[in-house]
Design goal:
By secondary structure, this protein is an all-alpha fold. 84% of the residues lie in helices and 0% in strands. The chain contains 15 helices and no strands. Helix 1 (2-32) packs across helix 9 (199-228), helix 2 (37-65) packs antiparallel against helix 9 (199-228) and helix 9 packs antiparallel against helix 13 (301-315).
Length: 387
């Protein structure tokens, strides 16, 4: 099991390292091709939207056939092939098609990797965050150095060479991963539909959607906002490096104390902190200060993700963990992604980045009221049933 834990640490490290090339630098790459903010927002987020349908499907197949390793390997190979189309075709339509395919495959592997991580850490008596933080470390390393490497290679247009080189490590580590064969019992379609009838789980996913739309908007458009304010390409990379770096201590330590609090109470606090974060992004126009504000990722996204993963797993049957995790990722990456990317891009084009972040603050303020209200309602229901 210790070998499995270290393999999963390496896989998290290397998988998230590959994404550190895409998020900071693909918007710049597409900007060089002359696309507008709304077009780039759509390119960056429509692929995750397809994950609404793709991730639960792959999660269901993993649960049904009791294999995650094979499916992850296939998804990563298809991710690589899709990236070839992005970099070696011209025209917005082709970029749209291949970005859709890339995210369709790449993002579908994340909940499967999370599912393996959760099971291995539970068996070893470790926290999920103690392994997941390695993903943040990998992301930080590449985000900090990618700008320098791309400059040495001749510019952002040389993304393909860097991106494909990083993918070598996760493929090698995947060979050493012990597959999760589960209990051997196959999941029926009726078990899958039972998750869809779980009203509390579906309401939780709705709350996640409201809370994460501004976050996903920031994921796709922060780099363009920084460029508008005069930031360089390397500064854009540092913005995401600091965000990922801020996640590390939270992933490492939160698991030790979060059992003292209800998940919805923590998510309500996170929603309030997100509201403050987006208001600061709207008011501050110094790109250097905005980059340092990315460290607030540690008390917003990092806390959100650990808590949301734990709550999603708790709300569904143990045999459906991969499916539940996939549905959570589909809402976060898919529904929230397409809404944040397109709506945020439109607001930025029409009224500027300031208005975009004001919109984000309003949404997270609404989310805080709904989440804390739900928590209060559930507590009252529990006390009533106890009587």
């Amino acid at each position: 099991m210790k070998k499995q834990i270290w393999t999963l640490r390496g896989l998290n490290f290397s998988y998230y390292a590959t994404t550190a090339v895409l998020m900071p630098f693909l918007p710049i790459y597409f900007g060089l091709k002359g696309y507008s903010s709304s077009q780039i927002g759509l390119l960056m987020m429509f692929g995750p939207f397809v994950a609404i349908f793709a991730q639960p499907l792959w999660g269901y197949l993993s649960d049904r056939y009791n294999t995650s390793k094979l499916i992850i390997g296939v998804l990563w190979l298809l991710t690589m092939l899709s990236s070839v189309g992005i970099f070696y075709t011209s025209g917005y339509v082709w970029a749209f098609v291949f970005m859709l395919l890339l995210y369709f495959f790449m993002l579908s592997s994340a909940p499967l990797l999370d599912s393996l991580t959760i099971k291995a850490t539970l068996q070893e008596g470790l926290s999920y965050g103690s392994v997941r933080m390695w993903g943040s470390m990998g992301y930080t390393l590449i985000a900090m150095t990618a700008g320098i490497v791309l400059t040495a290679l001749g510019g952002v247009q040389h993304i393909p060479m860097l991106y494909w080189s990083i993918w070598v490590l996760p493929f090698v580590l995947l060979l050493f991963l012990k597959d999760d064969k589960g209990s051997g019992s196959r999941i029926s379609f009726s078990a899958f539909t039972s998750v869809l009838k779980n009203r509390l789980f579906l309401w939780f996913l709705f709350l996640v959607f409201i809370l994460m739309v501004p976050h996903r908007m920031n994921d796709g458009l922060l780099v363009l906002y920084l460029k508008d304010l005069g930031a360089s390409d390397s500064m854009a990379g540092w913005a995401w490096a600091l965000a990922a770096l801020g996640e590390v201590p939270t992933f490492a330590l939160l698991g030790r104390i979060m059992h003292r609090f209800h998940e919805l109470a923590l998510l309500g606090i996170v929603a309030v902190l997100y509201t403050i974060r987006w208001m600061l992004y709207a008011w501050i126009t110094d790109p250097t200060l905005l980059i340092w504000l990315q460290l607030t990722h540690s008390v917003t996204f990092a806390v959100f993700w650990i808590v949301a993963v734990q709550y999603a797993v708790r709300l569904v049957p143990e045999s459906m963990r991969s499916t539940g995790q996939a549905m959570l990722s589909a809402v976060f990456l898919g529904m929230a992604g397409i809404t944040g990317g397109f709506v945020g891009g439109y607001i930025k084009d029409e009224w500027g980045g300031h208005a975009m972040y004001i919109f984000g603050a309003v949404m997270t303020a609404v989310a805080s009221v709904l989440i804390l209200g739900t928590h209060a309602y559930l507590l009252r229901q529990k006390k009533t049933s106890g009587l």
